[in-house]
Write a structure and sequence with these properties.
Pathway: Cofactor biosynthesis; adenosylcobalamin biosynthesis; adenosylcobalamin from cob(II)yrinate a,c-diamide: step 6/7; Cofactor biosynthesis; adenosylcobalamin biosynthesis; adenosylcobalamin from cob(II)yrinate a,c-diamide: step 5/7. This is Adenosylcobinamide kinase. Pfam families: CobU. The protein has 183 residues and is α/β, with parallel strands linked by helices. It has one domain (2-175): 3-Layer(aba) Sandwich (Rossmann fold). The chain is built from six helices and seven strands, in the order E-H-E-H-E-H-E-H-H-E-H-E-E. Strand 6 and strand 7 form a beta hairpin. The protein starts with a strand and ends in an 8-residue tail after the last strand.
Length: 183
């Protein structure tokens, strides 16, 4: 099983690269981790849906349900995206703002390890935001999430065969990649 992590900033082209890499497979499961809770997010979800080939299967569910969907799928899996998945885990738990933050962080990191170590699909591509290039958030929740996301990205990169950083639509392969793949 090949594992690929695609990192980048918001609207950098990371999802498009992941879709190109995944489209080479006969059977694809697209794990859509976002919830369309406002008009802007509804529009983003709509654009992602329109880009997907009609024969791709789609999973949309609670963060904890992703493990069953991915491990039981006999084809390529694209998870878009780890950042939204982690934010849903954090925002659903009151510990995110409270004193039991360390427990939540460890649980979220364990779930991340589990996601990247699942056996089953022939190919796993995970999209994630690189949050380490941005400013340190001015509030505790933002700093906590930035720390968690950076740690989760590091876990994913260690577990993956290939890692790309997408900047302005151009992938820079930082681990074991094909420098000629451009979406």
């Amino acid at each position: 099983m090949e594992r690929i992590l695609i990192l980048g900033g918001v609207r950098s082209g990371k999802s498009r690269l992941a879709e190109v890499l995944t489209s080479r497979h006969r059977r694809v499961l697209y794990c859509a981790t976002a919830e369309a809770l406002d008009p802007e997010m509804e529009e983003r979800v709509r654009l992602h849906r329109e880009r997907r080939p009609p024969d791709w299967e789609t999973w949309e569910g609670a963060p904890e349900e992703i493990f069953h969907a991915v491990s039981s799928f006999p084809g390529a899996v694209l998870v878009d995206c780890l950042t939204v998945w982690l934010s849903r885990i954090c925002l659903a738990d009151p510990s995110f703002q409270g004193d039991r933050w360390q427990d939540l962080k460890e649980r979220a990191l364990e779930m991340t390890r589990r996601l990247f170590s699942l056996e089953g699909p022939s190919h796993l591509v995970v999209v994630s935001n690189e949050v380490g290039f941005s400013l340190v958030p001015p509030n505790r929740m933002g700093r906590r999430f930035q720390e968690l996301q950076g740690m989760a990205n590091a876990l994913g990169a260690a577990a993956c065969d290939r890692v790309a950083l997408v900047v302005a639509g151009v992938p820079l392969w930082i681990k074991g990649g094909d420098p000629h793949v451009v979406p």
